[in-house]
Specification:
The chain is mainly α. It folds into two domains: 3-81, no CATH class; 89-122. 69% of the residues lie in helices and 0% in strands. The chain has four helices and no strands. α1 (3-31) packs antiparallel against α2. The longest helix is centred in the middle third of the chain and has 30 residues, at 52-81.
Amino acid sequence: MTYKNRLRKVFKWSLTTLILSNLYLITPALAQQGRYGDWQMGRWMMGGWGMGWFGMIFMIIFWGLIIVGLVLLIRWLIQNTSGKGQTGVRTGSNAIDILKERYAKGEISRDEFETMKTDILQ
């Protein structure tokens, strides 16, 4: 199973869990509509003076952002702690620095320095 497939599977399960938990929480509130009389504890609590749909939408967005943030954090941690992509061989500007250092120490001549530099920069 590839990394992307695992990530999709985790995201799918997280989203399913979020949707089902929200449905589970909303269903009793819908079933008790008009049951509380003068206590003002109707469908969305506070007798219609609460956040209503607006608050529920922001709650879903908030928890969605929390879950996405956790997935991205776990993905970043996996990428940075795994040994993939780390070969231990220096390339690019580090190679030029080593070449300059060897030339400064006198280990290689100017002609060797120039040919090696053109090879590295290609």
